[in-house]
Specification:
By secondary structure, this protein is mainly alpha-helical. 60% of the residues lie in helices and 4% in strands. It has one domain.
């Protein structure tokens, strides 16, 4: 069962410390939901969860992954989508102003830099980039188990591929 509550999760605290209240709460709710699902999977004796736990995936490690996934899903993913430019040059050659936000080449460059820095950190922590796009704890557990089975005994503990 998940044992890392939100208030004591150092990764979640570090990632959300400087966020405004609304996105911070959204990230925290998503993280808590993933921890609850982790507990449910443990109670149901989920085969994939049992397997990844046998491969040294602790609740604390999973909680760190849930924190990163939640930040990507709630904050960086939507920003990354806003920085994509179309063939017509909207948002790059032709700036878009929406409220106080300006979507232009400078915005695109800042967001791309932040996203690439984030994925560098994800990789350095031994997590896979594509795990940031998974929607639920169950999805993550499934893909981690699949990766661990595919990596077999090659000594790749977290899968940086």
């Amino acid at each position: 069962m998940a044992t890392v509550p939100r208030a004591t999760d150092p990764v979640l605290a570090a990632l959300t410390r400087h966020l405004d209240v609304k996105p911070r709460n959204a990230v925290a709710r998503r993280h808590e939901a993933m921890l609850r699902e982790l507990g449910f999977l443990g109670e149901r004796e989920n085969e994939n969860l049992a397997f990844i736990r046998s491969r040294n995936w602790t609740d604390q490690r999973l909680s760190a992954l849930f924190s990163l996934n939640s930040i990507y899903q709630e904050v960086l993913g939507p920003l990354d989508a806003s920085a994509r430019t179309g063939q017509a040059g909207l948002g790059s050659q032709h700036p878009i102003v929406h409220g106080s936000m300006r979507f232009d080449a400078a915005h695109t460059a800042r967001v791309r830099s932040a996203v690439e820095d984030f994925f560098t950190m994800v990789n350095e922590l031994g997590f896979r980039r594509d795990w940031m796009t998974k929607n639920t704890c169950g999805d993550l557990v499934f893909y981690i188990a699949r990766h661990e089975r595919e990596s077999g005994a090659d000594g790749d503990p977290g899968g940086r591929r």
